Amino acid sequence: MTSHEMPLAHGPHEVLCGGICALNFKVDKESDVPPYSQLRRAIIAARSDGTLAAGDRLPPMRTLATQTGLAVNTVAKAYKELEAAGAIETHGRAGSFVTALDATSHKAQLLTEKFIVAMRKLGYEDQQIHATVDHMLGLDRELSNKAQTPGSS
To answer: Fewest CB within 10 angstroms: 26, 37, 114, 136, which?
Structure first.
C-alpha cells in the first residue's frame, strides 16, 4: 500500500471563510486501522502529495468530527499525534495549520509508511512495531558504541 492508497479517501480541498480547508475524508469502517490513525494517515498523505499545503488551516476538531462521523476525542487524538510528529501546529483558538515538509522529511515519511504497512502485513500490531523498532535502535546503539571503543573488534 502506498501513501496514496490510504484506507481513508482524500481529495482536493476548498478554502472556506476564514481560510479553513474543507477536507474530503471518509472513514473506512471495514479497516482494521483505527479511525484516528486513518485520519492521521490521510492528513499526512494529503500533506505529502501537496493536496494540503504548508499554512493551510485545518477544520476545527468539532467540525471535522461532524464531517467524518467521528467522535471529537478521535479527531483530537489524530491532531495530537500530527502535532507531535510536526505535521501540524496548533495556535490556540486560531486553529491547527499544516507545516512545511522538507525533502528529507518527505522521504523519511514515505519509508516509514512502507515499513509500517509491511509490518502490518506480517500481522504486527502497533505495540509490536514499536517494540521491534526500539529493539533495533538499541542494537544499533550497541554496535556504534562497540565500534567507538578502543580495542574492540
So the answer is: 136
Distances (CA, A) of 68 to 27, 79, 118: 7, 14, 27
Q: How far apart are CA 113 and CA 138, in angstroms?
A: 21
d(CA 32, CA 18): 35
Instruction: For the chain, report the end-to-end CA distance as a whole number of angstroms.
Output: 41
CB under 8 Å to 57, separation ≥6 — which residues?
A: 18, 19, 20, 21, 95, 96, 97
CA 123 to chain centre: 20
Q: How far is Cα 50 from Cα 144, in angstroms, rounded to an integer?
A: 38
Distance CA 41, CA 26 (A): 12
Residue 136 pLDDT > 80: yes
pLDDT tens across 79-123, in order? 999 999 889 999 988 999 999 877 777 778 778 889 999 999 999
